[in-house]
Amino acid sequence: MYLFGEHAVVYGEPAVPCAIERRATVTVGERADDRQRVSAADLTLDGFTVEYGADDATPDVDVPTPLVEAAMGYVDAAMATARDAADRPDAGLDVTIESEIPLGAGLGSSAAVVVAAIDAATRELGVDLASEDVAERAYAVEKEVQSGEASRADTFCSAMGGAVRVEGSDCRTLATPDLPFVVGYDGTSHDTGELVAGVRALREEYDFAYDTVESIGDLVRRGEDALREGDTAELGRLMDVNHGLLAALGVSARSLDEMVWAAREGGATGAKLTGAGGGGCIVALADGDGAKTALSLTPACDESFRAKLATEGVRAE
Ligand SMILES: Nc1ncnc2c1ncn2[C@@H]1O[C@H](COP(=O)(O)OP(=O)(O)OP(=O)(O)O)[C@@H](O)[C@H]1O
Ligand SMILES: C[C@@](O)(CCO)CC(=O)[O-]
């Protein structure tokens, strides 16, 4: 989840994502043959569940094929980089994905799945990669699958845990403050690639959009100071401004605006959309139950939950 800086991070501005305790679990077992089988038991969207195998010509599913193809793109590429890291190009793998993270909703579900898949597959093939190496390979996978449009933010954060700072290829972990986050989810998903392309087009066409991206960078630097000083009032104010700047770039949605306002009216110190936008999740900084209750009473909000910061990144269980 992004405290600050999504979208602008694609153009080299800094961003501060934070890992929360919602995990993707990937189990990998080596096969006796050279085939690949993937089952994503809980790849759910709008109430559908899909299970598919890499060796099935036509997956037996009741969801749009593009969704399955998109999921396979990430998982295939993750397995390929794991086989490459282990120098075992012909290894056959059985992969099972279980994820608690809503898809395409701004919580970095693809990064979590790719990071966990690379970590589990390399371990199964006898290689113990450092979390930083898992992060770098996961970034390459996201970049490839998202046609060159990805920052290192989601993957580095998923791999390392806690709060991190990403600016271009410079990725660092930050001292993790214990901040009270509440997430509101509208139950929908977005296409990250389309939203990133929309911002790119706007930024190329209008100077003000170009400047807005730079302003987000300035805001993130101020946010880092506030984080260091533990100044939650300032963090909240900057989250509100960050939401406004993202809205100016065209990536908010009525449901996201409604949830942001509900959280604020429920006493949140600040609230913003998180991730690519268009629909999905907002994050609020909020002590007490007011913001969560306000969200649960908002028709646009499908689910709200307290998001505990995960200090640990990818791990073997
Ligand atoms: N449990 C899962 N099993 C298989 N594939 C998954 C799973 N969760 C996510 N994915 C893949 O990741 C895609 C969603 O990633 P995408 O980058 O579009 O959104 P996100 O990471 O959830 O949101 P954002 O980029 O805004 O943080 C899904 O369409 C699917 O291809
Ligand atoms: C919109 C974006 O900044 C975040 C999506 O999770 C894209 C990216 O950083 O790859």
TrEMBL record:
Q: Name one Pfam family in it.
A: GHMP_kinases_C
Record-linked SUPFAM superfamilies: GHMP Kinase, C-terminal domain, Ribosomal protein S5 domain 2-like
Q: Which residues bind ATP?
A: 102-112
Annotated active site: 154
Looking at the record's lineage, which domain of life comes first?
Archaea
Q: Which residues does the UniProt record annotate as the domain GHMP kinase C-terminal?
A: 225-293
Asked if Lipid metabolism is a keyword of the record, the answer is yes
EC number(s) per UniProt? 2.7.1.36
| Location within or outside the cell | Cytoplasm
Q: Where in the sequence is the signal peptide annotated?
A: none
- Gene Ontology MF, one: ATP binding
Q: Which GO terms describe its biological process?
A: isopentenyl diphosphate biosynthetic process, mevalonate pathway
- GO cellular-component term (any): cytosol
Q: What does this protein do?
A: Catalyzes the phosphorylation of (R)-mevalonate (MVA) to (R)-mevalonate 5-phosphate (MVAP). Functions in the mevalonate (MVA) pathway leading to isopentenyl diphosphate (IPP), a key precursor for the biosynthesis of isoprenoid compounds such as archaeal membrane lipids.
Quaternary assembly: Homodimer.
Protein name (Swiss-Prot/TrEMBL): Mevalonate kinase
Organism the protein comes from: Halarchaeum salinum
